[in-house]
Design goal:
Blueprint lengths: L5 H16 L4 H8 L3 H18 L2 H21 L3 H19 L3 H16 L8 H7 L13
């Protein structure tokens, strides 16, 4: 069997990356490239490790946090409190990842608390955005149940 050159490996990995990011399975990639599935698995593993090594983790976590925060505020403004609570869950998980906390245990506790808060939240507006919608604290949209 002829030896595969570094250039051939790099070319194959580029094709693997292209197909993988478009959602092709490893089996389909192996078939399309006429390569062994194990070779494709190793390529995907190596590409994933390389991608993780190149990621600026604090920057990406901050970006995720800001995105989740924007979704939260948007959902409160649209009167969708349950979706806003879901965005808060994402924010907490991101913050815990940033701080290196035991995410599974803490997110489970948060989810229990958010589930408690979600009961009967129809029409609730988050206090941070109440002023944006022109709702006073005493209106039917008050975050405090009366």
């Amino acid at each position: 069997m002829p030896r595969v050159t570094d250039a051939q490996v790099l070319a194959r990995r580029e094709q693997v990356l292209d197909l993988w990011t478009r959602g092709a399975s490893m089996t389909k990639i192996a078939h399309a490239l006429r390569a062994d599935r194990e070779t494709i698995r190793r390529d995907v593993t190596m590409l994933a490790r390389q991608a993780v090594a190149e990621v600026d983790v604090p920057r990406e976590l901050a970006r995720c946090l800001l995105s989740a925060r924007a979704v939260e505020l948007d959902r409160w403004q649209k009167g969708q409190p349950l979706q806003a609570l879901g965005a808060i869950k994402v924010q907490v998980a991101v913050l815990q990842a940033m701080l290196g906390l035991d995410t599974a245990e803490r997110v489970a506790a948060l989810e229990r608390r958010l589930d408690e808060l979600a009961v009967g939240t129809s029409g609730v507006i988050h206090p941070e955005v109440a002023h944006v919608n022109g709702h006073a604290g005493g209106s039917t949209f008050s975050p405090v149940k009366k």
